Task: structure prediction
Amino acid sequence: MNALAHQTNTALRPAGGFDLSPQTFEQALTFSQYLADSDLVPKDFKGKPGNCLIAMQWGSELGLKPLQSLQNLAVINGRPALWGDAVIALVLSSPVCEYVTEDDDGHTAYCRVKRKGAPEQVRTFSMDDAKKAGLAGKPGPWMQYPKRMRQMRARAFALRDVFPDVLRGMPVAEELQDMEASNAAGAGEKHMGPAEVVPPPQPEWPAERWAAGLPKWIKGIADGKPLDEVLAWLKSKGRVTAEQEQQLRAEAAKVQAQQQAPAPTAPAATGTPTVDAEQLAKRMQACTDTEALYELGNLMDAVTDPEQNRRLGEIFDAKLAELEQAP
Result:
């Protein structure tokens, strides 16, 4: 029986099943030699048992099994690095990670991460950043897969900044590859500078406030205010969810359809109650919370005089701004 088989049948076989993880330094040396002679390891480790041994040690400190270490560690410019997919896998499996989300708007990649007990952090990488770094349009992945490369850069910034203990300071391979290409071209190593810190997103609009204010915003759209301007104002006050934006757009589309429909031959009785504009204005000015103000704002529809309605709208907006700025 050869040495590896003997090890496998003794110390290397855990109670739960078959496992080749070395248990002693001698076993690690033997295993590294077998790996270096194999055709199933990356070229950085082929014929290099020393590289295999060090990679297994690096991976062990990160919580990776030996074969995972060889597949997910890269040697770039003599430096060990982790591929981006392994980086996010390690972070997501850590108990300190609450979530990691990634998206891209076609120009900028966003990586939002949250560590348990800490606020959300956001890192970005845009095509403007890529141009400053001399990466945009460079032959290779940056020309073929710019979205993927933006994603890897934003991910590297976010995960290395927020989870340095999980990654043990290990660099990300995609970053080092770009630096290596720059050095080969004689440009020297490119330093990306400090990562952009994006403030945590605003809290989303509460459902009650949204429902109370929706009629007024729809009325503003009906009176000619562009939908995009209304949305921009709303997003400046709080985070609008996808469902809320869809609801606003749907209601705005109904208003537009009604405005384009032929006028009825006779006006239909609406049953709208009569509202004293002056009394309503006084009540708005005396409001001390936004919920009550929104309820009063819904009564503005009953004021038919255009000038009075405009004045009431100005009073509403001024009072809302005052209440939202109050501590």
